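Posting this for the archive.
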Amino acid sequence: MFPLQLLALIFITPRHDVKERRRRRRADGRTGRTDGKRELVLRRGDLLEVPRTLFTHFGIYLGGGRVAHFIPDIMPVVSSDQRRIRQMVTNSRLLLGVLAKCGSVRVDSVEDFAYGSEILINAVDQVCSRPALQAEEVARRAEKLQGHVSYSLLWYNCEHFVMYCRYGTVTSFQTFQFCKTVRKLLLSRHVAKATAVMGPCLLLYLGAATTCSALLAILLPFLIWMAS
């Protein structure tokens, strides 16, 4: 049960006691931060961001208080009951969807999408090198992709979905930053040195010093050193 609770902490932010994660910025009616204290001014095709505990969730505003967003969900795989599928996704459905790499592009209300957190509108426009597509084209792309879609936490998540809809490119800044951090942690000179020392020691301790294992003990730290 503990791993499920830990994953729930990562993916779901409680509705209460949502702390501010970014400093307040001045914004016009279309771009910038909004929250419960400011009236939302949303237009069809807007890209919405909602900060979670360790990541940011994304969606495309379709108008009429509806948001299309891509989330991991196991229900479309195990049931064809549309009534059950349309119900709000629970933690269990979400976590099982992550593990099974199953997801769906679904339409929910702005309130259900935000889940009590602040909303950023079109903030990615300021950092993306590609210009945004026409608002109607953005919304049409999101609507066209509704339904069951294969999900990958790193390679095709909610950010990839909205980036394709709004900018025509399938990319994720969050994935890039995560991979960059992992690279710094694993492919470093300190790791190479530790591997060079611990590898032979482990082989001698286990009595598994063969030609192949010795070659591996030499090659692995060398590759990490060259990649660092």
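The chain has ten helices and seven strands. The beta strands are 32-34, 47-51, 56-63, 66-72, 102-109, 119-121, 147-150.
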